[in-house]
Design a protein that fits this description.
466 residues; alpha+beta; 18-stranded antiparallel barrel; two-stranded antiparallel ribbon; 5 helices; 44% strand; globular; Autotransporter domain-containing protein
């Protein structure tokens, strides 16, 4: 609350100092949308049984809104803000790992002042977003992405091409952008404003600052404009536990084909990994406090390569590869799933009934922790394995009563687990969009995308554009 109050007071004082009495504040009309969806979820149990039914078939009414706008406070001072609201209500009491039956979410995705000392220099202060990347599925150049706080029960399907975009949230800090003849320079300083003491809980329960400002981060990027067909970008982030250098390029091979490549090398890990020695100790009935951690000295690298082809009817087809050294190896996956099976009932094998029952609450806590850590890593838009292939296609239309569609699949090459998504949408009027879609995750129970069971989601809704 103190941080929010300080920012509000600061904004008012800055605006007051720059605004002359004769200057009338000018605001745009803003833009956004409101919508509602019916979401049906069919779930099998998978490996998880943490002191109750882990997942349940359910039906959820998902209501949401998004808005953004800006105001000129003075000739060289502008205020910009955007935010989202969501309320999800399920018909049945969810499973232990499904989240809450009724969930509400309000996020100020951005809220900042922009001071423009010259035509090509922009200085931002407040809650700002800085992102880079050309890929459809995973962007190694996106060095500042934050962990999402979306509800576990249902997510908004407002953007079928980027389902995470609704929840993308900036961080509090100061940033600058310079447009020069050679290209675009970006800088940002995002200070640590809190300590994340909730990391063992679902990120759905984290505070805003725990999601966005729990570490110090300093960011820089440069995108050259010297080439007509390609736009190379180099960026970096330096922080207390994670430091990375990224390089990417995207451009036209010919009139219809775009080639994109991104890579990053880093010191430190992006998410909390299961410590394999601690996992083995758990399987031997050892007393392990926290089996997860992040190695701030580990050297890692990742690579993404993609092709996009657009035909004469504006239908787009694409394929992408993503690989990383940070993901679990095959032997680590085996130990991971061995641990999952052990804490989800395997510990009782061969034990007297009474003793097994007395240990159930303890290992139920381990099971919940394993599920939460895996979910939190996914909320940070991370894959947990080594190698992935993504296929996607879409056809967009701006004509009324014409149907646009998109479909994508991401497969882990290590275990064959796959996530498949499909969406249909049509504008029935200038401001009204109908959409429907589905999402499937399948694979063996010992696969990254199948460990929580075969999960099927079907949704349909209406969205009103403001």
């Amino acid at each position: 609350m103190n941080n929010r109050l300080s920012l509000t007071v600061c904004a008012v004082l800055i605006a007051h100092g720059y605004m002359s009495p004769a200057h009338a504040m000018s605001c745009n009309s803003g833009r956004g949308y409101v919508g509602t969806e019916g979401v049906g979820a069919l779930k099998s149990q998978g490996l998880w049984h943490p002191n109750g039914e882990a997942f349940r078939d359910n039906f959820t009414i998902n209501t949401y809104a998004a808005a953004s706008g800006s105001c000129m406070l003075a000739d060289n001072l502008k205020a910009t803000a955007s935010g989202v609201l969501q309320y999800a209500s399920s018909v049945r009491e969810p499973g232990v790992l499904d989240g809450k039956q009724n969930s509400a979410l309000a996020i100020a995705t951005e809220a900042y002042l922009t001071y423009t000392p010259s035509e090509k220099v922009f200085i931002d202060i407040g809650k700002i977003k800085r992102s880079n990347g050309f890929m459809f599925s995973m962007n190694p150049l996106d060095l500042l992405r934050n962990t999402s706080g979306h509800p576990r029960s249902a997510t908004v399907n407002a953007d079928s091409n980027n389902p995470n975009s609704f929840y993308e949230e900036g961080s509090i800090g100061v940033g600058g952008t310079v447009y020069a003849d050679s290209g675009t320079f970006e800088l940002a300083a995002l200070p640590k404003l809190t300590t994340n003491d909730s990391f063992r809980e679902s990120a759905e329960k984290w505070s805003m600052l725990e999601r966005t400002n729990s570490t110090n981060r300093f960011y820089g990027a440069f995108t050259t404009s010297k080439f007509s067909d390609f736009n190379p970008t180099v960026n970096m982030v330096a922080g207390s536990s994670y430091n990375a250098l990224g390089l990417g390029v995207s451009g036209y091979v010919n009139d219809n084909l775009i080639l994109s490549m991104e890579s990053a090398v880093a010191r430190g890990e992006r998410w909390r990994h299961l410590n394999m020695e601690a996992a083995t100790a758990i399987q031997q009935y050892g007393n392990v406090g926290d089996p997860f951690g992040q190695n701030s000295r580990r050297l890692t690298a990742n690579l993404a390569v993609g092709l996009r082809y657009t035909d004469s009817s504006r239908t787009e087809y694409g394929i992408e590869y993503f690989g990383q050294t940070e993901g679990y190896s095959r032997s680590e996956w085996r130990n991971y799933f061995k641990t999952v099976r052990f804490v989800n009932g395997g510990f009782a094998a061969g034990l007297p009934t009474g003793l097994g029952a007395s240990l159930a609450p303890l290992y139920g806590q381990y099971a919940n922790l394993l599920a939460v850590e895996t979910d939190n890593a996914n909320r940070g838009n991370n894959f947990l394995g080594k190698h992935y292939i993504t296929l996607f296609a879409s056809s967009k239309t701006e004509q009324l009563r014409k149907v646009g569609w998109s479909v994508s699949s991401t497969t882990s090459l290590a275990d064959g687990g796959t996530v498949l998504k499909a969406n249909l949408s049509t504008s029935v009027s200038k401001n009204t969009v109908l959409h429907a879609g589905t999402s499937f995750s399948f694979g063996s129970q010992q696969s990254e995308f199948g460990q929580f069971g075969q999960r099927k989601t079907i949704y349909a809704g209406v969205r009103f554009v403001i």
